[in-house]
UniProtKB/TrEMBL annotation:
Pathway annotation: Sulfur metabolism; glutathione biosynthesis; glutathione from L-cysteine and L-glutamate: step 2/2
Required cofactor names: Mg(2+)
Protein name: Glutathione synthetase
Subcellular location: Plastid, Chloroplast
InterPro entries listed in its UniProt record: Glutathione_synthase, Glutathione_synthase_a-hlx, Glutathione_synthase_C_euk, Glutathione_synthase_N_euk, GSH-S_sub-bd_sf, GSH_synth_subst-bd, PreATP-grasp_dom_sf
Length: 499
């Protein structure tokens, strides 16, 4: 029995006698099926703790919460207790982090591979096509990125049937929750320090999560390599960002620990306020920018007009360190993930045989849709597949009968649109009981979890300055939900209890 939420936790919570504690201020019917005062007491403690420790997001019920900091805050959705994970799987995922960091860098240098692999997608997907246009222009101008910074997050699910850890995807742009996830870990540590005896849990089994400090350190080192003490880090943001505190945690740490200043701008603002000087220096509002950290720009919605595309191109042309560069961004597409999983492709980029073995072991089944056998199999057994477009941010994938319907339509129309997608083997993680807290309300659910490992990579020409695993993210969702995003409203933040 791997990765069931520690059986003793649920047992302890359910069997606990009524202790006569005052009911806390939550709606009637919270913690469905659980009348236990211990859970109520823990939820109450947790809600207070999140408010006192900045585990917060903007509240969608408050119009200004995505724009004005300090207004309309609500606790980030969280799981009351950490997910159990065998230590071996945690170590496996952490070890993969530096290998994927290397792989991204190597693949990013092969511009023709990126262009070629995405050439059919380009024809049918206008968004990917625009990214490829910028990438092509950079190739043609022979622009070299000497300083390269990647802040990636590789996501995994533990397959229930085989007990193997499979990569879901690798995010190379705007990898989120490095700010909030380590605070969730602290919340769980705090709760288990208080209630561990009642629960049969020991907080020493919670692995440390240095995600904020390591990401801030990597950004500060990139700032340092650029070597302009007057320069700032530019955080490219969406105009409305309810997950802004996750970003502010990182920016505050950069300022307080490393004395590095950040400015926040949307692509629209950058288009009107930014310039690239003849020597390549990027200036925004008169400030020199050494590092451009994208927390926007990964979705078509981020480019409502030509202005935003001009801004993206401007940033790419500058000598500032781009996190990510257009090449790193493209390496993170699902199409490239699928191409890398083909036989003999990894070998083009990785020399180390053990590294190749470890990477391959983490690859689930991935197929392009030129393979009619796979398409027909997916039409017959859609429940075993996920159909994925080249999109980020959650909510874009196709599951179940919709896989069949979409594939039948594309097949019958002989539509080229089929190249916009890849097919992936559907992973079925083992379910366990979890208490998911959202909007101050706790619900007990059958849940599944997704583990993300943050990774940072920084190099300057031949010198690798950082290649680190930088902590983790766990997102847990009701098993009835297909998608898994926290920001998109499907999942809650969680942490790990090693077994
Ligand atoms: P995005 O870039 O939008 O986050 P993902 O590939 O991570 O795209 O898919 C979004 C969510 O869909 C994941 O968080 C996960 O919950 C679910 N998902 C994706 N691929 C699979 C899969 N192969 N098996 C099961 N669930 C999946
Ligand atoms: Mg993604
Ligand atoms: Mg994802």
């Amino acid at each position: 029995h791997h990765r069931t939420r520690t059986a003793s936790v649920v047992g302890a919570l359910k069997n606990k006698k009524n202790t006569g504690l005052t009911p806390i201020t939550m709606e009637i019917g919270v913690c469905e099926g659980l009348k236990d005062d211990l859970v109520r007491e823990m939820v109450d403690d947790a809600l207070i703790w999140t408010s006192l420790h900045g585990l917060v997001v903007g509240d969608k019920n408050d119009k200004r919460s995505g724009e004005v900091p300090g207004v309309g805050l609500v606790h980030a959705p969280f799981s009351l207790l950490p997910m159990s994970l065998p230590r071996t799987h945690f170590i496996q995922a952490c070890e993969l982090s530096t290998i994927f960091n290397d792989l991204v860098d190597r693949v990013s240098l092969d511009g023709e591979f990126l262009q070629e692999s995405l050439s059919r997608t380009k024809k049918v997907d206008p968004f990917t096509s625009r990214l490829l246009d910028i990438h092509r222009k950079m190739m043609e101008s022979d622009k070299k990125e000497d300083i390269r910074l990647g802040l990636h997050r590789s996501d995994y699910m533990l397959d229930g049937a085989t007990n193997l850890l499979y990569q879901i995807e690798l995010n190379t742009i705007a990898s989120s929750f490095s700010g909030l996830s380590c605070i969730v870990g602290e919340l769980h540590r705090n709760l288990i320090n208080h209630y561990g005896k009642n629960l049969g849990l020991d907080s020493r089994n919670l692995p440390l999560n240095p995600s904020i400090s390591r990401y801030a350190e990597a950004l500060s080192k990139a700032w340092n390599e650029y070597n302009d003490p007057s320069s700032v880090v530019l955080v490219v943001v969406q105009p409305l960002e309810r997950n802004m505190y996750d970003q502010h945690w990182l920016c505050a740490t950069l300022r307080e620990k490393h004395n590095v200043r950040t400015i926040r701008k949307t692509l629209t603002e950058i288009e009107s306020e930014g310039v690239v000087l003849p020597d390549g220096t990027l200036q925004v509002c008169g400030k020199n920018v050494s590092v451009v950290y994208f927390r926007a720009g990964y979705s078509p919605d981020d480019y409502p007009s030509e202005a935003e595309w001009r801004a993206r191109y401007l940033l790419e042309q500058s000598s500032a360190v781009k996190c990510p560069s257009i090449s790193y961004h493209l390496v993170g597409t699902k199409k490239i993930q699928q191409e890398l999983a083909k036989p003999n492709v990894l070998e083009r980029f990785v020399e180390n045989k053990h590294a190749i073995e470890k990477l391959r072991k983490s690859f689930a089944g991935l197929w392009s849709l030129d393979n009619m056998d796979t398409v027909n199999d997916a039409i017959e057994k859609p429940e075993f597949y996920v159909l994925k477009p080249q999109r980020e941010g959650g909510g874009n994938n196709i599951y179940g009968d919709d896989v069949r319907d979409t594939l039948m339509r594309l097949k019958n129309e002989r539509s080229e649109e089929i190249s916009a997608y890849i097919l992936m083997q559907r992973i079925f993680p083992k379910e366990s009981r979890a208490y998911l807290v959202r909007d101050g309300i706790c619900r007990s659910n059958n849940a599944v979890s997704e583990l993300g490992i943050f990774g940072a990579y920084l190099r300057n020409k031949d010198k690798v300055i950082v290649n680190d695993q930088c902590g983790y993210l766990v997102r847990t969702k009701a098993s009835s939900s297909n998608e898994g995003g926290v920001a998109s409203g499907y999942a809650v933040l969680d942490s790990i209890y090693l077994t």
